Amino acid sequence: MDDCLLKIKDLDVIYMTDEATVNAVNSISFKLNKKENLGLVGETGAGKTTTALSIMGLLPMNIGKIPKGEIFFHDVDLLRLKEADMRAIRGEGIAMIFQDPMTSLNPVITVGKQIEEVLELHNAKKRTKFEIEQRVDEMLNMVGIPVKRKNEYPHQFSGGMRQRVVIAIALACEPDLLIADEPTTALDVTIQAQVLDMMENLKQKLNTSTIMITHDLGVVARTCDKVGIMYAGEIIELGTDQDIFQADSHHPYTIGLFGSIPNIKTKAARLNPIPGLMPDPTNLPRGCKFHPRCPKCMDICKTQNPGNFIDGTHIIKCHLFGS
Q1: 19, 40, 256, 266: which has the highest count of C-beta atoms within 10 A?
Q2: What share of the chain is helix, strand, coil (3-state, %, to 5)?
Q3: Would you say 51 and 28 are in contact if contact means Cβ atoms under 8 Å apart?
């Protein structure tokens, strides 16, 4: 139990609008241990980013609500903290890399100053001004940016270099947990590989646990040792990387995700995409949320939400495996 860094239990997240209530996250539960890397995979709208924003306490004010659930970080219930206490945890205890580095950075402040601001805000080590400047230089070197560029502005950097700056900001205070929300989506394949390698090296050096949010199962296979498959706000399959990539039993949605990936070892002319679309989160179907698209749908799937089938570390939420 001492190794448990983050614990989420029965978390619900909704967005209240004038037109309807959006059920973004529905009763998800998982644990993340120290030095562990979790990948959250699923289509757009599955609830991955909302889960991350819930952990960070950054849901939109007056719209985002958490009607039930628990989020414990180091045995502290984040949902019961005051905003001032939560701000103290952001950056130092939990840091997040957002999808678009250009919109994450302030366009009128130099990149060096933006790293410096984080260190000044979370100055638990009582660093002097000189020591903070040294730490800025150290972080730029760690992410492969020449120190002489610290007085330049975000628009003077390429997309890959901006992402490196965002990673430097996120890791400057050596957080225990790093949440990476699609950190390589806007990058080309070559730069993507470089950024992933750099993140992996930094995680090992700083002993940081990670939640990697992505659509790319290849990125998950490369960087994560635990995987959660999300659909319509639920975690429908959860396990180690071996459970997900090597086991014979899978949720039909997970099978569909693998069927949508090109395989250079086969001569198949076409991929097998999942038919249909993600359900409307303001009007989710009864029973299993995947049943309208599921090729193995049974009558019970249309009326009853499945329980969890547990096989060691492998959890599958599907009627095919019993409840």
Answers
A1: 40
A2: 35, 25, 40
A3: yes
pLDDT in tens, the chain (323 residues): 468 999 999 999 999 988 899 999 999 999 999 999 999 999 999 999 999 999 999 999 889 999 999 999 999 999 999 999 999 999 889 999 988 888 889 999 999 999 999 999 888 678 899 999 999 999 999 888 999 999 999 999 988 899 889 989 998 888 999 999 988 776 777 777 888 888 888 888 888 899 999 988 888 988 899 999 999 999 999 999 999 999 889 999 999 998 887 776 666 567 788 899 999 999 999 999 999 999 999 999 999 999 999 999 999 999 998 75
Separation between Cα atoms, residue 14 and residue 26, nearest integer Å: 9
What are the DSSP calls for 180-212, one per residue?
Answer: EESTTTTS-HHHHHHHHHHHHHHHHHHT-EEEE
195 contacts 164 by C-beta, under 8 angstroms: yes
Which superfamily does CATH assign the domain made up of 4-93+173-321 to? P-loop containing nucleotide triphosphate hydrolases (3.40.50.300)
Domain ranges of the chain: 4-93+173-321
Strands (E), 81-225: 94-97, 177-181, 209-214
Q: Is 267 helix (H, G, I), strand (E, B) or coil?
A: coil
| 86-107 as b/e: b if 16+ CB within 10 A | beebbbbbbbbbbeebeebbee
pTM: 0.90
Q: How many C-beta atoms surround the C-beta of residue 296 within 10 A?
A: 13
Taking Cα atoms as reference points, which of 33, 47, 40 lies closest to residue 179?
40
Say whether 277 sits in a helix, a strand or coil.
Answer: coil
